[in-house]
Every structure is written in structure tokens, then in C-alpha cells.
Amino acid sequence: MTLTKIQLPRFLNIASPSSLSMKMMWAGLAITALFIIVATLSPAMQAWGWLQNPTDALINPIHEPPSANYWFGTSRSGYDVFSRTLFASRAAWQVVILATALSLFVGVPLGLVSGYLGGKLDRALLFLMDTIYTLPGLLLSLTLAFVVLNTTASSGITPPASKPNYLSKPPAPWVQTLGQCCRATYFST
Questions:
Q1: Residues 132-160: pLDDT tens digits?
Q2: Of 46, 112, 132, 154, which sits most exposed with the smallest number of CB within 10 A?
């Protein structure tokens, strides 16, 4: 009876020379592990006295620059920005888990049904997804147009914040400019 050596998958074989993609994979895994450790241990670090309570306001100096006491400085309300950042990693981790779960339990079955049946259902789901993918770009272009309009008030364009009754009048120049920005964003080649 001969013994056969069981080979590990390539990504687990640390001894072999690795390519750039393998190095990047290990770097990404290390960053993700660090993120999970910080998110998991932030309440324990607060209990040990290493972090301040992120909800305590006005017990720290206001607008303190980064220093040994306040690694990321303090906000205008006196919050310690470093402790708030570490505690926010818990919320970010929850969002990652929720988004992954939704894509697995909603997106995969819809994709399977759409790919198997095809036809009108496939076109309807494709239209729905295209609409959803368009929204972030649309919101970005609207926000950009509003910021540009607020900074160009001296050029005769009046932003809606300074006119409380802007809906009762004919379209203002800012509406026309907003439409031009949206058209230039989505219909340019």
C-alpha cells in the first residue's frame, strides 16, 4: 500500500511562491479580519477603559486636534472621533451582513427564475435592476447640481432654499440648469 500525499488547495499552500493575486487575497483577508476584530471587541475595549463612551458629549474639549489623548481629535460637540469610528464599525458590519443575506435570499432566487424562464419576466427584472442601478448616479448628479447652483448664486441663479414659494411660480432658472445637468450626465456620449 502506497501513501499518497494530499495536496492542499493552492490558496492554502503558504510555502509555495505566490503570485500578486494571492498576496492581494491574503492582504484583503487580513484587513477583513482586523475589521471584524475591531467591530467585535470595541465594547470590550470601552469596558477595559481603552476607549471612551462614544455617546458622551461635551466632556471632552471641543475641536481638539489629533493628539495622544484623542487620536482622531474631537468634534464640535465634544465627541471623541476615534471611539465613535470604532463603534461605527459595528454598524458597518451589520450592514454588510444584511446586504449579503438579502442578495443571497432575494437576488439569487430571482436570478435563477429570471434566467430559467426568460421572456417578459427577464425583461421586467432587468428593467427593475437598471432602474435601481441608475438611482445612485441620479442622486449624485442632483446633489452636484444643487451644490453648483448654491455656489453660483451671484450669476443670477437662485437656489430653492432662498425662495420659500418657488413651487408657485413658473420654473426658475435653477430648474432649467438642473435639467441641463441631468441631460448632460445621462445623455452624453
A1: 787 777 676 777 777 766 655 444 444 45
A2: 154
* Residue 148 identity (one-letter amino acid): V
The larger pLDDT score, comparing residue 15 to residue 130, is at 130
pTM exceeding the 0.85 threshold for the entire prediction: no
Q: For residue 17, give every residue at least 6 positions away whose Cβ sits within 8 Å of its Cβ, in sequence order, or none.
A: none
Residue 63 and residue 81: Cα distance in Å, rounded?
10
Task: Give the cell for residue 60.
Answer: 471632552
User: Which residues are CB-neighbours of 153 under 8 A, at least 6 positions away?
Assistant: 159, 162
Which residues touch 88 (CB under 8 Å, ≥6 apart)? none
Cell numbers placing 2: 502506497
Handedness of CA 22, 26, 27, 31 (dihedral sign): positive
- Asked if residue 165 has pLDDT above 60, the reply is no
Count of C-beta atoms within a 10 Å radius of residue 6: 5
Neighbours of 107 (CB within 10 A): 11
